[in-house]
User: What shape does this take?
Amino acid sequence: MIRYQGKVYRPPSEADSLILQATLGCSWNRCTFCAMYRDKRFRVRPLAELKAEIAWAADHLGPVHKVFLADGDALMAKASFLGEVVAELKAALPDLRRISCYASPQSLQVRSVAEMAELRAAGLTQYYLGIESGHDAVLERLEKGVDGAEMVRVARKAHEAGVVLSTMVLLGAGGRASSLDHARASAAVVNAIQPRFVSTLVMTPVEDTPLWEQAERGEVDELDPLELARELREFVAHLDLAGSIFRSNHASNYLALAGSLPKDKAKLVAALDAVLARPGEARFVPEWMRGL
Assistant: This one.
């Protein structure tokens, strides 16, 4: 059977995927806002265990179309190990169409273009990259471990390897003082990367994180829904993308928007302008429906 240690975390678009825990935890695990893997020490799982789980999936799950390699930073595992996992998946699951994983900036620094290209050819075709912000001061405060320029550099390595990138930006991460600067700088980094997918989440303090402790001390500005809509409007207005899909469908968002860029940019901006002009009519997601 599939053995998963701890809570299951995966991107919204992997809801119907087989979640295979190739690694435990996150190799970086310092981001101030993230509590997902603080109860785990990063390690790579034994290949024999994974092969047994893949064999069980082939015998018991019926057609499997998508596989997500968990936990938070599977790309940090050696390329040779990932290659064996991908080969095993492809051999055992004949209906498999996509294999994906999270990619931290640190794992993208470690993996070479040649390694990523080889893994992409084998079947690991999509990475989820948390950009969070393009604003260097915000990235430092979040303890992402890279600045905006380095985020662009490592993401372009994945592009050069032919990997599809799905990127995330953290609304509210700049607080009130830096809200619009954070939005513009984040758009600039996304523009430089040109990901296939771009989505937004809302920064939310959760227990057992440095961000929670900062919020308890009154050091965190949590933007209200209207302020977040203004920031999102600034972000979308400054996007210059040649062919990307935009979503704000993560459960943390107050507004669920979707579109293809650049085709739907004007429509998205107009929708946000309407919210800002008539906030009383805005259909913000109620607090009880939001989550992480």
Observations:
- Residues 83 and 119 are 6 Å apart (CA to CA).
